[in-house]
Every structure is written in C-alpha cells, then in structure tokens.
Amino acid sequence: MVDSPFTPMDGLSRAAPASPADADDAALLAALRAGESDAFERLVRSYGPRLLAVTRRILGSEDDARDAVQDAFLSAFRCLDRFAGESRLSTWLHRIAVNAALMKLRTRRRKPEESIEPLLPAFDGGHHQEQFSSWAEPVDQALERAETRAFVRDRIAELPESYRTVLILRDIEGLDTEETAVRLGLTPNAVKIRLHRARQALRTLIAPHFRGEHA
Amino acid sequence: MTCREFADFIMDYLTGELPPETLEPFERHLSRCPNCHEYLAQYRQTVEAGRRAFACDDDLVPDNVPEDLVKAILEARKGL
Predict the structure, then answer these.
(1) Is CB count within 10 Å lower at the N or C end of chain B?
(2) A87 to each of A39, A84, A178, how far by Cα in Å?
(3) Residue B56: what pLDDT?
(4) How many contacts (CB atoms, under 8 Å) link A and B?
(5) Percentage of chain A with pLDDT > 70?
(6) pLDDT confidence of residue A171
(7) What is the four-CA torsion angle of A54, A59, A60, A63, rounded to 10 degrees?
(8) Measured on CA atoms in the order A99, A104, A106, A112, is the torsion positive or negative?
(9) Cross-strand partners of A124
(10) Beta-carbon count within 10 A of A116 CB
C-alpha cells in the first residue's frame, strides 16, 4: 500500500509543514516498527476516533463501522513496513479506513435499492417541470447551525446506497473521480454520473427546508 | 440548448471541463433561463451543504474509541 495522494476532510495534508504532530508520528512509527506493544495501543487510541467517524460516514451502521475500524487497524499493522512516511500517518490511516469501509460495504448483505429517479429533476419537452424558488437563507449561513448540518446529514443518509457512497467519497472524503472509480470498481464516467445524480437528488431532498418549508 | 441538456452539463461546467463548443451554448442558456440559473445556484449550494454538513462537526468524532473495540483490535493483532 502506498501513501495517499488525496487530502481527507480532517484537513491534514502531505503538503503541510513539519509540526509537533509530525514529530509525534515519527516517534510513534519508530515504536510501532520496533514492535513495542504499547505503541499499537497508542495508535488505536490516538487515531481510532477519527477512523470511526470515517467508517460511520460511509457505512451508517455502528456495528459495521466498528468492524471496519478493526479491519483498518489490522491492515495498518500488517502494512507498517510499507508506509513510506511521505504522507502523514493520519492521511495514510484515513485511506486504509476508507478501504476497509468499502470492503465492508461490498460484503454486507445488500438491500434492494430504491430508484433515485423520483428525486431527479423532471422535464417536459426539454424544460424543467418545476419552477425553482430561491432559498430563503444562504446555505453557508444556515449551516452555521448544528441542527441544519444534522438535517443535511440525515438527507444524505436517505440517498440510495450506491449514490450515497459516491457522494461521500467524492464530496466528503475528498477522493478524486479516478480513485473513487478504482475503489468502487466503476468506470470514471459512471462515478461522474452517479455523483451528479446524487447531488441532484440531495438538492431535491434539502430544497423544502432551505425554502423555509419546515415540516 | 434545452433545460434538460443544461442540467446534464452542470457538473462538468462547475469543474471547468466543458469543451468550448458546449460551454458557449451552456452560458447562453444560463443567461436567458432564470429557472436554470436558480437550479445551478441550488446545485452549487447543495454541494457546499454536503461538504459542510460533515466538515465542522467535531462532535461527530467520538472522544474515545469504545474500550471493548480497543481491546478487540489489540487482541486480534496477536493473531497476525
């Protein structure tokens, strides 16, 4: 496994300058490679919370998210020798956690997926059937509120799984089209189509709220 | 360009990937169709909403990994 080329949403990138965190990572890595058993526990306790947040985003289910975190750490332990240190440890672990979550997604029993079509814009003779009224409040302002952020997360959770996964990987986890395609076994074009539909469907789901039509 | 075609091209427009022969009719449609103008604005805001919905919530990151999970991971490591 090579170091990750993308910047996950925790804001830690390979381009960041050396910091106390880098020094801590270097010390931790040295201890891990020396096989010091408390180093493994430190790694799990330090990075586990963020990895759990990642696997929860992708999988939804708490049990699956915990399984994926366990799988991710075991993968990381196995691959420590191959971690070249070109990215931050957090970035490398993020990538492994995404992989573990996607593996879990593939192996878990698939529920029949609902069609996304009803959430896509409808057209009549090439024109939108709907007249779009403008939103009452700028999104960036509305999203200052925790309840609005929770509302959007809940609507994302309502998207059909194959679309939700692409939206999470591309827009939230920060993978590019090519990498998302590889991870999901899709063509880059299929990823683009799914992402576009997922965003359109999410717009349909959140629009009533942002128009001020609170249910 | 119809509204349907306009909607199909939105993502490529936002990433600057529309070829010139499509960009020109796209922007002409955008300047003439207030409904598509609004739809594009909402599409952009939806992308932003998705990103921000997760980005600012430190409370989505648990303070600790559940103790039983830490133990399970460390126990499983012994089998590697």
Answers:
(1) C
(2) 19, 8, 19
(3) 63
(4) 142
(5) 88
(6) 94
(7) -100
(8) negative
(9) A127
(10) 18
pLDDT at site A76: 94
pTM: 0.83
Is any Cβ of chain B less than 8 angstroms from the Cβ of A44? yes
CA angle B24/B29/B35 to nearest 5° reads 150
β-pair partners for A123: A128
Spans of chain A below 70 pLDDT: 1-21, 109-110, 214-215
The 3 state secondary structure assigned to A90-124 is HHHHHHHHHHHHHHHHHHCCCCCCCCCHHHCCCEE
Phi, psi of B47 (to 5 degrees): -60, -45
Q: Which single residue is written with the structure tokens 């399984």?
A: A67
Judging contacts by C-beta atoms under 8 Å, the chain B residues touching residue A119 are: none
Give residues with Cβ within 8 angstroms of A189, minimum separation 6: none
Output the six-digit token pair for B61.
């990151």
- The C-alpha of A86 sits at a distance from chain B's nearest C-alpha, in angstroms, of 25
Q: Would you state the torsion angle of the CA atoms of residues B63, B67, B72, B77, taken in this order, to the nearest 10 degrees?
A: 60
Helix, strand, coil proportions of chain A in percent (round to 5)?
Answer: 65, 0, 35
Q: Per-residue pLDDT tens for B17-72?
A: 999 999 999 999 999 999 999 999 999 999 999 999 987 666 678 888 899 999 99
Give A76→chain B minimum CA distance, Å: 10
